Amino acid sequence: MSIVLTDDEYKRKMQRRKEIQDQRLASMKNDKGLIVVHTGNGKGKTTAALGMVIRSLGHGYKVAIVQFIKGAWQPAEKEVLEKWSDQLEFYAMGEGFTWETQDRERDILAATKAWDKAKDFILNSEYKLILLDEINIALKLDYLNIEEVLKILEQKPEDTHVILTGRGAKSELIEMADLVTEMKLIKHPFKEQGIKAQAGIEF
Hints:
The protein has helices at about 5-25, 45-60, 75-80, 100, 105-120, 135-140, 145-155, 170-175, 190-195, and strands at about 35-40, 65, 90, 130-135, 160-165, 180. Strand 2 (about 65), helix 3 (about 75-80) and strand 3 (about 90) form a beta-alpha-beta unit. The protein has one domain: P-loop containing nucleotide triphosphate hydrolases (Rossmann fold), CATH 3.40.50.300. By secondary structure, the chain is of the alpha/beta class. The chain is built from 9 helices and 6 strands. A 6-stranded parallel sheet has the order 3-2-4-5-1-6, with helices on both faces.
């Protein structure tokens, strides 16, 4: 049973909450580049990351996106984001799902090329945010060396944000990250209803 507060009680409660929040904010750092991980079996990892990309572009920041698995098709988001071409670098460098290529050496080579491009952006202080889309899958499948990735992340400029997406994020990466979100799958139209991927929702 919920307790209904009077207007005065509610006001006092909110005033106290504001005091606590103000004290907390006063003790926090102003700026810090974050390492952000979006993982889990649910949908929405890249979508959430692209929301941060758009937010950063809105602030006038320079942003880079490197897609590690996608690339065999032209992602619709690339066409939209090209409107910010003066602020954004976008590279879709994968060759599609691993079951499509069926060639581990070729997949490793594609991931390595994408990582080489990503390193340049991570270490370049001109870029405020770098999105490494589906890199967690490349790490999970050992296409990339996790120790090297962690080493480069440690060297990023102080105020640079890096987002790493994809299911199966390595425990070492989760430990290093400042913010980790796990997307949990509850229901999916492809698996449960036999509905193909829909334009505007999944690509």
